[in-house]
Structure formats: structure tokens, C-alpha cells
Amino acid sequence: MPIKTLFRLTLLSLGIALLLAGLFFENSAAARAPQAGTPIASPLGTPDRLAEPTLPALPSQADLGAQVYWLSCMPCHGDRGQGLTDEFRQTYPPEDQYCWNSGCHGERPYENGFKLPKFIPAVVGPVALAKFTDGAQLEAYIRAAMPFWKPGSLSDEDAWKVTAFILRSNGLWAGVGELNADNASQVKIQRGAPTPEATPISQTVPFSLVGVGVIALAVAVLVTLSYFRLRKN
Fold first, then answer.
1. Are residues 212 and 181 in the same domain?
2. Cβ(80)–Cβ(110) under 8 Å?
3. Residue 45: inside a domain, yes or no?
4. What is the DSSP letter of 232?
5. Of 37, 42, 58, 188, which is the most buried if we count CB atoms within 10 A?
């Protein structure tokens, strides 16, 4: 076979292989990536997503914090700590689903109402508490700035309760004992730490290796078949 012909066949095979590689890695990445809108397990644990959470026989501080969260935080931050998403707003009565409209919580809110910010962050999730370094800083912010419509209205006790609940919901606080000013700074918040549901990097490497092997094999097969076909002709 002429060298030029073999060279062209090799380039053609490599082009096909690169196309297959792109499709393979795109599909693999999409399969591994967290899907937008994937619901977080509700820390409130109620069948009715808007219902007040019930307490166990011997409620912990974090259990009591679930009720504080339901009353003062959930309307904006969601029943799963996901923030005020479109999906969560659909659980509201129809007349209350358009939070940012004028006359509701947008421009010109209703009498004695308030205007919502355009983005209300999640409080549960891998990077939900990224701007805080520890439980003490989180509690200080909640006590001073929350709830949004009446900052500073939570009692010190309720601020600690809801802090304990949010930390427990993020897997940062076991919920045993009492969270307070003496120990909250020891509860560190790892910025951007992956949740247990995230795929570890070590598990994604084998998929990439398999993909490279498949592509290399495809190139070899295409070149070989093309070579023998030309020889036959």
C-alpha cells in the first residue's frame, strides 16, 4: 500500500476515534455529574412537605431546631434546604407561587410586606455553608441577619437550635448534646466538601481508562480493515 494512502487512512481512523472519544467522555461525564434539581432528602422528614415536623419522645436540640426552621426559614430556604427553587415554589398554594411579582414580594410589595432578593441560597448541600468557617460563625449570622423579613427576631435559644439543625442536616454535627458558644467554634465547616452522594475521583479513573482502551482498539481495527481491503482490490 502506498505510504500516502496509509497515512490518509490513519488520519481518517483517528478522526473517527476522536469523535467516538468525544461522545464517550461527554456521556460518561453527564452520567457522573449531579443532575440539576435533584432533590435532597428532606431533613424535616414529613410526608407533607409543608407540614410542621413532629418531635420524637426525647427531642434533641437539632430536633427542636427543625421546628424553628419550619416556622422561620423554610418559606424561603426550602423544605430540603435547597433554597427558593421553582420546584419548591410549586408546593405553595397557586396564589403564593409568584414571589417576585409586584404586589407580592417583588416591586411594590403588599402592605407591611417585604421585597425578596432575586437569589435565595441553599442551606443544605456541598457548598451551601461555604462562606462560614465554623458553627459559631453560622450561629452569629443567623442570630443577627435572619429571618430575612425580621432580622434579629430569633431568641438566642432558637438561633442555636436552628444552627444545630442546619449543621446536622449537612452532616457536620452529630446532634448529640447541646451546641453552644463553648463548642460551636470546634464544629468546622469544610468549604466545598463533597457530600456522600458525590462520586469520588478514584472511581471515575477506571471509566476513562476503559474509554481510552476502546478508542485505541477502534483505531487499530479501522486501519487494519482498510489496509486489507485495499490490498484485496
1. no
2. no
3. no
4. H
5. 42
211 belongs to a structural domain: yes
Task: Judge if 72 and 173 occupy the same domain.
Answer: yes
Average pLDDT over residues 210-229: 58
> How many Å apart are CA 64 and CA 52, to the nearest integer?
11
pLDDT digit string (tens) for 93-118?
777 777 656 566 556 655 666 666 77
Instruction: Report residue 202 as a C-alpha cell.
Output: 478514584
**Higher model confidence: residue 182 or residue 44?**
182
Nearest by Cα to 44 from 168, 143, 132, 145: 168
H or E stretch at 216? helix 201-232
Task: Give the closest residue to 65 by CA, choosing from 150, 153, 179, 151.
Answer: 179
State how far the Cα of 175 lies from the Cα of 177, in Å rounded to an integer.
6
- For 224, other C-beta atoms within 10 Å of its C-beta total 12
* Structural domains in the chain (count): 2
The pTM (predicted TM-score) of the whole model is 0.60
Cell 457536620 belongs to 172
d(CA 198, CA 220): 36
Task: Please return the burial class of 169, using the count of CB atoms within 10 Å of its CB with bins 0-12, 13-18 and 19+.
Answer: buried
pLDDT for residue 94: 79
Say which residue the cell 423579613 belongs to.
149
